[in-house]
């Protein structure tokens, strides 16, 4: 089972400069390799492999000597990331790889091996950069697992976990170093504990919950429970406007402008952290209380094109919430079901099945003309989402067969996803 843990690190001034060099070098190699692949295939129909790109790094370092100061494995990992992007594109799981820009505020590079973690003094060693403070607010591996399965070394009475000494066990995987727009540095440690993922637990109608996500209400469960949308961005909007005006008033290139930009970025980081924390708590609660969770396959990218709703949709963060539900369900052996985006979950009466074709977004309650049931729009939708999924599972045959279903584009299909 693979798990990743993110920890904050505190480099000194010299180490921050080295980290920025690594960010820039990884971006430079990625863009350079992308240009080579586009050129070679566009003109000569030649597919450049990862070995070709890594061999080209030798001559690239002669042309750009500053690349010699960068960890070579991080540069090779940039090539690997590029080819992964192409693979995802051709498999239909992503868009065509594009150039990376330092204006995107996505700064990261990866270290596949040769890093060390001082478990006694909470420090981490990065090749070419050195030792720095790390906040290990949670254990990435239990003490028992480290004692029984890994090799540690003792230096001056301090216990150090060296990735190089444990390479054969294949437990300590790639380490990713990143920087946020607010100037905070983090490392993400990927761990493979070789424990198998739990088998999906059996579920019934009573242990299955349907979820209808929304804007006014963050999520409505088929049990009738409503989870309010905290609207972190909207609550901080006045503060953000004030900070943005402060940035606009400062002369470009001045120190005061840099300080104002830093304050603005810090507040955006606070909003993102609040949203992330909220989604973790809600997703953990839902996973604990249910054996199967049913979601609607929403076209979020298409919905964001509606300029009237784009900001609210971005603020609620549906995609991040669904991602958290999926990997937590995988860890605990729960099942995620999805229904097609064209299923009329809101317009159907969950009692008699009548379809109210005239239902618009501004109608929050409606009365079924057939059975006279008064419906709350969101609760009715969540119940229908659950019913549609279970109905499609019965149509497919058995729950065991349903685990193999992957298509969700058709209105009458449901997929049980084990990511």
* Poorly predicted sequence stretches spanning 5 or more consecutive residues: 397-419
Shape: globular
Number of helices: 12
What level of helicity do the residues show?
A: 40-55%
Distance between the termini: 12 Å
| Major sheet strand order | 2-8-9-1-5-4-3-7-6
Q: How many beta-strand elements?
A: 17
Chain-wise SSE layout:
Elements: E1 2-10, H1 13-44, H2 50-63, H3 72-90, E2 107-111, E3 116-118, E4 123-126, E5 130-134, H4 143-149, E6 152-155, E7 158-162, E8 172-179, E9 185-192, E10 208-213, E11 217-221, E12 226-228, H5 232-235, H6 237-249, H7 255-289, E13 292-296, H8 300-304, H9 310-316, H10 318-332, E14 335-339, E15 365-367, E16 374-376, H11 377-396, H12 399-402, E17 414-417
Helix pairs in contact: 1-3, 2-3, 6-7, 7-10
Question: How is this structure best summarized?
Answer:
By secondary structure, this protein is of the alpha+beta class. The chain contains twelve helices and 17 strands.
Task: Tell me what you see in this structure.
This protein has 419 residues and is α+β, with helices and mostly antiparallel strands. It contains 12 helices and 17 strands. The strands form 3 sheets. A 9-stranded antiparallel beta sheet has the order 2-8-9-1-5-4-3-7-6. Strands 12-11-10-13-14-17 form a 6-stranded mixed beta sheet, sandwiched between helices. The chain has a two-stranded antiparallel sheet with strand order 15-16. A hairpin with a 2-residue loop joins strand 6 and strand 7. Helix 1 crosses helix 3, helix 6 packs antiparallel against helix 7 and helix 7 crosses helix 10. The longest helix is centred in the middle third of the chain and has 35 residues. It is globular. The relative contact order is 0.09.
